[in-house]
């Protein structure tokens, strides 16, 4: 089965290192909690809010050992008024035997407010 796994994290500043580390940590947590490995991943879509432009968050993903060949695409979120700022969102599409209700969607920092109903 192919499933989408959501995640999001916030950073305190528009700084390359912080964006890279937050992205890396978020994706590591998504993989660990859902017991997926790089070869299980079909692709990763990463979006950032318009206020994060100091770096490509995909570089943070590339910091993960074994993720060299995982396809990734970065994009910018829609600039909705009053939306959560300095936010990195991910959609990991992966092969898994888990049912949809058993997927662990991961939210770090202020991003926890985005989907409190999905936090386990």
UniProtKB/TrEMBL annotation:
Prephenate binds at residues 6, 89, 107. This is chorismate mutase. Its EC number is 5.4.99.5. Pfam families: CM_1. PANTHER family: CHORISMATE MUTASE (PTHR21164), CHORISMATE MUTASE AROH (PTHR21164:SF0). Keywords: Amino-acid biosynthesis, Aromatic amino acid biosynthesis, Isomerase. GO terms for molecular function: chorismate mutase activity. It comes from the Bacteria. The keyword Isomerase applies. CDD domains: AroH. It comes from Salinibacillus kushneri. It catalyses: chorismate = prephenate. Gene3D superfamilies: RutC-like. The keyword Membrane does not apply. NCBIfam families: CM_mono_aroH. It is an enzyme of class 5 (isomerase). InterPro entries: Chorismate_mutase_AroH (IPR008243), RutC-like_sf (IPR035959). One of its GO terms (biological process) is chorismate metabolic process. The lineage of its organism: Bacteria, Bacillati, Bacillota, Bacilli, Bacillales.
